[in-house]
Design brief:
Layout lengths: L1 H18 L1 H4 L13 H7 L4 H4 L14 H8 L10 H9 L19 H7 L3 H5 L16 H8 L29 H8 L4 H4 L2 H4 L2
Helix pairs in contact: 5-6
The structure holds heme C (5 copies).
């Protein structure tokens, strides 16, 4: 009996643990070589994601900015700041900064930004309100059920592709012409949820 209880308890603990933010790393700010703030640069200054993640529309990876992108402004702004010393050194030595990854998937999962962006799946769906993050963290669990949850029925979460980097877009409070947009986009792009949940869509 005692052994049985111990096993049950262990099982419950393991399940709770697997779903907690600890294992999925959801909601945990990550230490970086430079405390880069999306809240300042996106939320306050209004920079578009593509200014720094230039490959997101074209390729599998969004990419991280090279230091010369930061130096466009920081060769004039905060030029002596100690906090930016690693950026200046990286630029001078032409060596990329070693950013700590926030949202990496295991190698056996295939993912592609371009297809999502071109169909109108917004950054905020998978990365949350980046414009409110003083340090980046993982906003969604990135477990299989998260991906499949949308793949079963993407319609309500599609928007016009030119709006994907907007953090506050909503189909309801703007142009009434956007209502029902998702259903129309499903037809226009020939999106078939039945195929999107096949194992080999994501495990190739
Ligand atoms: C001024 C440049 C800049 C802009 C603009 C910018 N980012 Fe970033 N982003 C960075 C840098 C630098 C990092 C790496 C450091 C970090 O994780 O905070 C990063 C990291 C990220 C990460 C974590 C990637 C990972 O897996 O490690 C996500 C997600 C992200 N950005 C999304 C966005 C989105 C969405 C937008 C637009 C709403 C945006 N960024 C705008 C510079 C920028
Ligand atoms: C378009 C101009 C611009 C670009 C590009 C830019 N910054 Fe900034 N950055 C600013 C401004 C303006 C401030 C001052 C913000 C404030 O004090 O409110 C700032 C402040 C900072 C700070 C001080 C802390 C903070 O957030 O206030 C850090 C660190 C920083 N930037 C890092 C970076 C890095 C790393 C990059 C490249 C990935 C980058 N910046 C690209 C304009 C820029
Ligand atoms: C459908 C979900 C989804 C959408 C939409 C999405 N991302 Fe991502 N993003 C991911 C996943 C998953 C990863 C991790 C990929 C990996 O490890 O292979 C990632 C990684 C990143 C990274 C780290 C560098 C890289 O390319 O691996 C950045 C930066 C990023 N995303 C920015 C963006 C921006 C900007 C947008 C909107 C223009 C966006 N993402 C839209 C899911 C998404
Ligand atoms: C908010 C909705 C949404 C989320 C979340 C989402 N996807 Fe998608 N995904 C889509 C849509 C829409 C398409 C495009 C389907 C099409 O055009 O046929 C797509 C397409 C794909 C494709 C390409 C299939 C092909 O035909 O090449 C892959 C791979 C993929 N997603 C993997 C993932 C993974 C892995 C995750 C989780 C990390 C994820 N997706 C999360 C909506 C989403
Ligand atoms: C839309 C994308 C997507 C589809 C479709 C998908 N998977 Fe996954 N799968 C993932 C992601 C993302 C992970 C990584 C989970 C993690 O890191 O926690 C994963 C992880 C797994 C794992 C590792 C163990 C686990 O559960 O974490 C197995 C096994 C697996 N998938 C099997 C399947 C099978 C079988 C199918 C078809 C019925 C399938 N997957 C369909 C995205 C997908």
């Amino acid at each position: 009996m005692l052994v049985f209880l111990a096993l049950c308890g262990g099982g419950l603990f393991a399940t709770g643990f697997a779903r907690s933010g600890y294992l999925t790393r959801q909601g945990w700010p990550v230490d970086q070589p430079v405390p880069f703030s999306h809240k300042h640069h996106v939320g306050d200054l209004g920079l578009d994601c593509r200014y720094c993640h230039a490959d997101v529309e074209r390729g599998r990876y969004a990419g991280l900015p090279a230091s010369h992108v930061c130096m466009t402004c920081h060769s004039q702004l905060w030029t002596g700041a100690a906090i930016l010393a690693p950026v200046r050194a990286s630029f001078a030595q032409d060596k990329p900064l070693a950013w700590t990854r926030v949202s990496a998937l295991p190698g056996y999962v295939y993912f592609d930004h371009h297809i999502h962006i071109s169909r109108g799946v917004a950054c905020v769906e998978c990365h949350g309100r980046v414009d409110r993050m003083p340090l980046a963290w993982r906003a969604k669990p990135f477990q299989m059920r998260f991906c499949i949850g949308c793949h079963r029925d993407p319609a309500p979460r599609l928007r016009p592709p030119d709006q994907v980097t907007r953090m506050d877009w909503s189909a309801w409070d703007r142009d009434p012409a956007n209502r029902g947009y998702g259903r129309r986009a499903m037809a226009a792009f020939h999106i078939q949820p039945a195929k999107l949940t096949d194992c080999d869509t994501c495990h190739r």
